Amino acid sequence: MQRIVTRFSVLHEIGHYVLPHHEHTLYVCDDVGLSFSTRLVMEKEANEFAADLLFLGDRFSVEANCRPIDARTVKDLANKYRASFEATARRLVESNFRPCMLVAFKLEQKGDTVDVDAVPIWTVRYCVASPTFKTTYFEKISGVLPAETVAAVTQPGRDIVDRVVGEVEIASRAGNAKTTFRTESFSNTYNFFCLMTQVK
Questions:
Q1: DSSP tag of 70
Q2: Which of these, 176, 173, 175, 151, lies nearest to 164 by C-alpha position?
Q3: What CA–CA distance (Å, rounded) separates 87 from 138?
């Protein structure tokens, strides 16, 4: 896994070197001199550059749109493109023509101490939606991963493909209809994810 993260990080830094205005701006300005929004834009551009190289541009997109949107596809494509499960799941959703969303969860920590007896609470860290999902439904959600899903996914010996499957009804932006989406919750051992795909 360390080598995979390093490959993306190296490509990200190369992006800063080769993308227009990045190198000059980084030499002339420091974190204090650059506005927050400028830094965000530059980091986003460098991430996109790294992802395009890592996933071989359109080659990944074509393959992603020919496969089911599920944890098995994430694992297979991550192994094929030598990328992390998280980066692969994001790219699978971002490049998909079908309505789908990836929700990533983080462990909510209160204060500096860890209470080993407390029930862990996993809240939404970020969402990635396919273009059709964004325009038809929404771009992000908030909430908590159900405790029973966390317990099922964290059982010892489980793999990313050993996911917890469910269904959820989602209303369109227009509010005139609800669509059934399949949910797949899985973990890469330190993060939780939920893939939502439209049931046909």
A1: S
A2: 151
A3: 21
Question: Could you tell me which residues come within 8 angstroms of residue 145 by beta carbon, excluding any fewer than 6 positions away?
Answer: 105, 122, 123, 185, 192, 194
Question: What is the mean predicted confidence (pLDDT) over 140-160?
Answer: 87
* Category of 68 on φ-ψ map: left (φ > 0), alpha (ψ -120 to 50) or beta: beta
| Contacts for 59 with CB less than 8 Å, ≥ 6 apart | none
pTM of the model: 0.80
**119 alpha carbon, distance to own chain's centre:** 25
Instruction: Give per-residue pLDDT as tens, 38-51.
Output: 667 777 788 778 77
d(CA 130, CA 118): 35
Q: How far is residue 161's CA from residue 147's CA, in Å, rounded to a whole number?
A: 19
Report pLDDT digits (tens) over 114-131: 666 777 789 999 999 999
